[in-house]
Amino acid sequence: MTGTGRRGHGEGAVYRRASDGLWVGSLNLGYIDGKRRRKQVYGKTQREVVAALHDLRRTAEQGRDLARRAPTLSSWLDQWLDIKRADGTRPSTLRSYQGLVDNHVRPALGRKRLDKLTAADIRVFITDKTHTHLAPATVAHLLRLLRNALGEAERLDLVSRNVAKAVKMPRVPPREVEALDVAQARALLTVLRGHRMHALFATTLVLGLRRGEVLALSWGDVDMDHNIIRVRRSLQRLDGTLQLVETKTRSSTATLAVPPSLIAILSRHRIQQQTDRLALGEAWPGLNLVFTSTTGTALEPRNVTREWDRVRRQADLPHLRLHDLRHSCATILTALGVHPRVVMEMLRHSQIGITMNTYAHVAPLLQRDAADALEAALFS
């Protein structure tokens, strides 16, 4: 493309580069510090470059400094992690982000400047990762991280658009949920009688709590007069020490109705704990936790998991993680016909779709119940 007159500040030139056939758009930014500055964009077609120049002009009109040199993705990710830390993101989540950045994103894309990073770059990165040993869910986490980080960059006017949003999310096969049925759950509760962690595992199963949540319960969270438990915190090992932190998400904080039989189990557990406390005297810590060691300290999460494995084998149950007691709670509730919205609130999922998709395996049982109900109503 050729021109006959001098272009003014803010106008752009579009031409095809002879060396490689690539289209180039150049936006005149005027004189800055005594030097003429231009912003260039590239594309395979003239239309693509013209559209990019249009976006640049619009961005400039919104007040963004186009002459400012964009940081590399590596540098920005460090800043983004600092922002997430300041926003109160859980330390365990930050560690997960840091691992994804250091082990995967930084080596592949870290040297790319934000304004040079394209959707094609990210698509190639994600495609390459799908052909490695990484689990599909991890690859999806990588794309979500990039969308999150570049979304923050867009909000701060460091980029004109979030190119990661243009990349299709990789398919993650649904994980088959392992859970106890009603008969297995009853057998487990029978085996637990007399076990020191009877109340802990029963609470996990009946209320569907996460491991950190059940270990963080204090007696102040348990209202035995009104049969309710408040879930407010989580016990996590951070930087080598056990710490009480906020729950996983805002929706994870809740007040749950508790069956009277579980309240009775907790009451007996409290009596035993008080006996231990009297035996130890002033050496007993003042944590007031519901579930503690015999010396009153917080339980080490890994030790609880190991004890669960022993109990599971004793009960002759299939290989189930401790977290699968949470799935068991939801599966049993769903099979009993409890409304999905209620199950969602008890499990404290942020969206009902999570509940429905996770426990879709119960649907055939419910359909049979529905067919039997129709048979009774219409043909009996």
Sequence stretches where pLDDT stays below 50 over 5 or more residues:
1-11
| Tally of domains | 3
Q: What is the CATH topology descriptor of the largest domain?
A: hpI Integrase, Chain A
Q: Tell me the number of strands.
A: 8
Within CATH, the superfamily of the largest domain carries the name Intergrase catalytic core
Layout of helices and strands, plus pairs?
Layout: E1 12-16, E2 23-32, E3 35-43, H1 46-61, H2 73-86, H3 91-109, H4 119-130, H5 136-155, H6 182-192, H7 198-207, H8 211-215, E4 222-223, E5 228-231, E6 233-238, E7 241-246, E8 254-257, H9 260-280, H10 301-314, H11 324-335, H12 340-347, H13 352-358, H14 363-378
Antiparallel strand pairs: 1-2, 2-3, 4-5, 5-8, 6-7
Characterise the protein shown here.
This protein is α+β, with helices and mostly antiparallel strands. It folds into three domains: 50 residues; 94 residues, DNA polymerase, domain 1; 141 residues, Intergrase catalytic core (hpI Integrase, Chain A, Orthogonal Bundle). Helix 12 crosses helix 13. The radius of gyration is 29 Å and the shape is elongated. The termini are far apart. The N terminus is likely disordered.
Defining traits:
380 residues; alpha+beta; DNA polymerase, domain 1; hpI Integrase, Chain A; 3 domains; 3-stranded antiparallel sheet; 14 helices; 8 strands; 49% helix; 12% strand; elongated; disordered N terminus
Question: TL;DR of this structure?
Answer:
This protein is of the alpha+beta class. 49% of the residues lie in helices and 12% in strands. It contains 14 helices and 8 strands.
